[in-house]
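Whether sequence alone determines local backbone shape is best considered at the level of individual chains. The sequence in question and its structure tokens are set out directly beneath this paragraph.

===
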Amino acid sequence: MIAQCCTRAACGQLRMSSSTPNHDDLDAIFKQKRLLRTQVRKTLKSIEPSLRSQQDNAVQDLVLGAPWFKSSRRLCAYISCAALREVDTFKILSEILQHNVVTGEKKLYVPRVEDKNSHMRMLHISRIDDLVANSMDILEPAPVDSDGNAREDVMQANDPVDLFLLPGLAFDRSGRRLGRGGGYYDTFLQNYQDLAKTRNWKQPLLVALSYSEQILDEGVIPITSSDLPVDALVSPQGVIPISSAALNRMDI
């Protein structure tokens, strides 16, 4: 198991350093994150394609059948990339877009990376064809639609987002999330949460999608003050509500 790669002593040091880290502590945390990312990537690479497909379907079916998903009207969701071995989201995205065509009730925003400085936007799309491959062969929305009009940016929207579906490399049951190191999601989510506070909006539910192998023991994932926790996890084994907001809104 990946979680067993950290000794109890090392995990204890990480917990201490994550509360009030100084420069040396931060260097140690970043080093631990790099090592953990390497370990998780190896584990993900070793999952047989048939098993990964089964887990993809199980996670997406759980999301699509959940009342908290069905009741969400405005959603932000990542576009899965097979090369990165992220939990597939295309069934979910297709369901949202098809539902929107029929009822117009759901609105979907998806990420577009703007630069290498953790700057990411979430832009509205209305169909899968709105996505194009970038230089890394990752699908994302073009900044303008087929008519040349700028796509709506969620940060300029008039209504709040109900739900974020998030990727990650690893998670634990206390809500810690290990990203890929770019800081894009943490930066964006912090900015959006600040916007929601300014506008007196209810904070969105942050739900991460995870393979079973990505859920680690508590304390193994080192964190800093800029690492935002998720409200809930969805794995093939079920939905794991973590925060009080998730417990209240998911009613599990």
Summary: The first strand starts at residue 74 and ends at 77. The CA atoms of residues 162 and 204 lie 5 Å apart. Confidence is low (pLDDT under 50) at residues 1-19. Helices lie at 8-19, 23-46, 49-65, 67-70, 90-103, 184-198, 244-250.
